[in-house]
Amino acid sequence: MDKLSSLRAFVKVVESGSFAEAGRQLRLSRSAISKYIGQLEQSLGVQLIVRTTRHASPTETGQRYFERAVAILADLDAADQAVSQLQAAPRGLLRVNAPMSFGTMRLGPVVADFMVRYPELQLQIVLSDDLLDPVQDGFDVTLRIAELESSSLVARRIMPVERVVCAAPAYLARHGTPESPEDLRRHSSLTYGFLLTGNQWKLTGRDGDHWIQPAWSLCVNNAEVLRDVAVKGQGIALIPHFIAADALASGALTAILADYAAPPLALYAIYPPTRHLSVKVRLFIDFLVERFGRAGA
User: Fold this and answer.
1) Which of the following CATH numbers is that of domain 3-86: 2.40.50.140, 3.10.105.10, 1.10.10.10, 3.90.1570.10?
2) N or C, which end of the chain is more exposed by having fewer CB within 10 Å?
3) Regarding beta strands 163-167 and 254-255, do their DSSP bridges make them parallel or antiparallel, or are they unpaired?
4) pLDDT number for residue 85
5) pLDDT for 196-217, tens place per residue?
6) Cα angle 35-38-39, degrees, rounded to a multiple of 5
7) Are domains 3-86 and 163-263 of this chain identical in fold?
8) Three-point CA angle 204, 296, 198, nearest 5°
9) In the 3-class helix/strand/coil scheme, how is the chain assigned residue by residue?
10) Who contacts 66 (Cβ-Cβ below 8 Å, separation ≥6)?
11) In this predicted model, what pLDDT tens digit does every residue of 89-136 receive, in sequence order?
């Protein structure tokens, strides 16, 4: 039995919850993955995986074995990396998932400079506003602008992302300018659909916190769309400042409620937990901190 290949197959099945997905990530057939798991269970004399038609999950013994296997494989990978670092620059494929707007507006120049510094690396970047699963979808690094929920994944904060409440001058001329957060209840709001707070807005001023459930006319999972609809005078939006910046500078949007602030979001780099972070992932995240940590978004 190839113990190392069996361990890798077992870890991928537990991480992805699927024999087929584990095979896809390891570039093996489903039957090959099943054979590796069967040989591993036979050699240990215990069942490690509970199989159903749609899902695979570890038994109690399998979960404990998984935790040890992850550590063993991480140590092996670290040993390989330590040797390779002595002779070569980081190389191979780095898969990154990032939000659509941040990717199109801010990520491109940084990625280009990263490629110049590390020419042996291949980057595959997937831009999406869907909440993809970093493990099941096989990403090395996932970038998210969010208020993060608790997770088994590791998250490193890259920079704060300030937000601004804004509307088009034409909208404010028709409907009036809100003087306090409570006034927002009488306005048409344009809201983002993926925050943990849902469609509630939290605004904080010298008089404390205000939680507002605005009457929204549009809910969308892309802040560039919110900005463009706001510019057309269709309502008030709460969006990241880097997305609204040009429209604010040109006068197409006006910032309102200047005495109140929404809690800043943050850009996070998320990756699966390992004892030894891979060199290419560490270098990419460090590069993001170097470039974005200075100026913010």
Assistant:
1) 1.10.10.10
2) N
3) antiparallel
4) 60
5) 556 789 999 999 999 998 888 8
6) 85
7) no
8) 45
9) CCHHHHHHHHHHHHHHCCHHHHHHHHCCCHHHHHHHHHHHHHHHCCCCEEECCCCEEECHHHHHHHHHHHHHHHHHHHHHHHHHHHHCCCCEEEEEEECHHHHHHHHHHHHHHHHHHCCCEEEEEEECCCCCCCCCCCCCEEEEEECCCCCCCEEEEEEEECEEEEECHHHHHHHCCCCCHHHHHHCEEEEECCCCCCCCEEEEECCEEEEECCEEEEEECCHHHHHHHHHCCCCEEEEEHHHHHHHHHHCCCEECCCCCECCCEEEEEEECCCCCCCHHHHHHHHHHHHHHCCCCC
10) 10, 11, 14, 48, 58
11) 677 899 999 999 999 999 999 999 999 999 989 999 999 877 777 677
Q: Residue 22's closest CA among 39, 45, 5? A: 5
* Token pair for 86: 């002595």
Topology at the third CATH level for domain 89-159+266-292? D-Maltodextrin-Binding Protein; domain 2 (3.40.190)
What are the structure tokens assigned to 181, written together? 């957060």
End-to-end CA distance of the chain: 52
The per-residue pLDDT for range 262-274, each reduced to its tens digit, is 988 899 998 877 6
For domain 163-263, give the fold: D-Maltodextrin-Binding Protein; domain 2 (3.40.190)
pLDDT tens string 39-97: 999 999 999 999 887 789 999 999 999 999 998 888 888 777 766 664 556 778 999 99
